[in-house]
Amino acid sequence: MTIFHLDFMRYALVAAVMVGLTAPAVGTFIVQRRLALLGDGIGHVALTGVALGFLTGTAPVATAVVVAALGAVAIEMVRARGKTSGDVALALLFYGGLAGGVMIIYLTPGESTASLNSYLFGAITSVDSTDLWVIAGLAVAVLALLAVFGRELFVLCQDEEVARASGLPVRFLGLLIAVIASVTVVVAMRAVGLLLVSALMVVPVATSQQLTRSFRTTMALSMVFGVLATVGGLTSSFYLDVPSGATIVLLALAGFAVALGIGRFVRRSRTGESTA
Amino acid sequence: MSTAFDMTAGQVAIDGRKILRGIDLTVDEGEVVAVLGANGSGKSTLVRALLGVQPLSGGATLLYGRPPARFREWWRIGYVPQRLSVGGGVPATVREVVASGRIARQRRGRFTSSADRQAVAAALEEVGLSGRAGDPVSSLSGGQQQRVLIARALAGEPDAFVLDEPTAGVDAGSQRMLADTLRGLVERGRTVVLVAHELGPLEPLISRAVVLNQGCKVHDGAPPTAVGTHALPGHDHVHPHEPAPAESPVPSWVLAQEKA
């Protein structure tokens, strides 16, 4: 008997593939925009959303999307105003989101902070067919938006002033990437948990950029690494009976370490060739 | 002849500090205008305000007769910023960066056209980087990165070029290339506004110079004829990869005006 004979593992694997594809795709733009920690900030804010779901008796994923998107818009507006530096704005949301989540869940009858565990650290094997449709819908929407706006987002994330001098709708695009990131965070929440979600947006990109020369291949390769990490991590966590979220992230980090070594070696031999 | 840039009483204040103190500046189509001045005189802010990239705190500016917020023909403008932003360490090839200069001419959701590809190839050729098109921009020297930025603007085939210190920290070869490129643009009747610390090999191409001092316009007219040793033939003002030169970057005749 293999993992494919188990319904919950089949659902989990499909979810893993979708998360592995979307998180690094969005992450490439986020890293290029120098907002690598944006996903962490949104993840913390989303926790308040999850807790609100418990409090109001609605689906935590739905409230998490709404609150995370509002948080992302707030981060972007603070950043664009330039009054507070971007990292301080992010930090404020980190603390507010986490504290808000814990407080709200404490105030919810019959719930305790233990209820948040599966959202904090991920529970991909609890994905059912309804969840899968929601995740698939969100993932397709994210990838479609990136395909349509990719060219403009590339200019925006490279140099915002040039984007403005090219007549691009800079404010709209900034909000768009923030909202896309928050949807991605909620999609990936089920796989690796809110505390580790940003790892899937950043680590595969960091891994890929050790080996690539162009933006396009960096994004494509990071999506490959993302899927390898989520599917590989999920499968091995099943056989080793260890937590899936942590396994996925540790696998991604191991991939980064290997790519770092290969990248150094390749670059060294390249410079060796050109000087020879 | 119509007007490309038109600023009236333009003021810019950043964090309460006045950077531009009421600038009137009109640039007609086909003019080649150099904006000169010492570090911190407001040169870069002026050109960024002309484009609407830097919002004004007072006064008004027009791009081809329209305020920046209502301007729609952005493909007519090619902006060359001071330096290439490396984008958070995510690699991008020379071709990718140059191709992004087509953005104002491209429709959302459409694939890259053959006109796009031709313009990018021509721009790369013009700055002599065709052979490096597939290399990551981070592997290029400062002067080569400056050429990438110019090629990005060229790829958009704009009517007007706005260059922010294109010669700063650039090696002699890239300076000559820049002068050649600029000559080509002038011959094709393009409008050019460029910020410079000193003109060097660009001097013969300039039709008009605007000199700023502490956010005020202190000269607007014929390019200054250099005095002293700088005027001697053979002194070509090239200071490759050097920090700010020891001598005053403001021409001595401007300093004389200030004292008056």
TrEMBL record, chain A:
Ranges that cross the membrane: 12-31, 51-75, 87-107, 132-150, 162-181, 187-207, 219-240, 246-266
Membrane topology: Multi-pass membrane protein
Translocase as UniProt keyword: no
GO cellular component, one term: ATP-binding cassette (ABC) transporter complex
Keywords assigned: Membrane, Transmembrane, Transmembrane helix, Transport
Subcellular location: Cell membrane; Membrane
Record-linked Gene3D superfamilies: ABC transporter involved in vitamin B12 uptake, BtuC
Principal location listed in the UniProt entry: membrane
Gene Ontology biological process terms, A to Z: response to zinc ion; transmembrane transport
The organism's place on the tree of life at top rank: Bacteria
Record-linked InterPro entries: ABC_BtuC-like, ABC_TroCD
Family that this chain belongs to: Belongs to the ABC-3 integral membrane protein family.
Identification of the protein by name: Iron chelate uptake ABC transporter family permease subunit
TrEMBL record, chain B:
Name the UniProt record assigns to this protein: ATP-binding cassette domain-containing protein
Keywords tagged on the record: ATP-binding, Nucleotide-binding, Transport
Stretches the record annotates as Disordered: 234-260
Database matches in Gene3D superfamilies: P-loop containing nucleotide triphosphate hydrolases
Domain ABC transporter: 2-239
Entries under InterPro entries matching the protein: AAA+_ATPase, ABC_transporter-like_ATP-bd, ABC_transporter-like_CS, Metal_Ion_Import_ABC, P-loop_NTPase
Domain of life per record: Bacteria
CDD domains: ABC_Metallic_Cations
Annotated Basic and acidic residues bias: 234-244
SUPFAM superfamilies: P-loop containing nucleoside triphosphate hydrolases
Molecular function GO labels: ATP binding; ATP hydrolysis activity
Organism: Herbidospora solisilvae
Classification via Pfam families: ABC_tran
Family: Belongs to the ABC transporter superfamily.
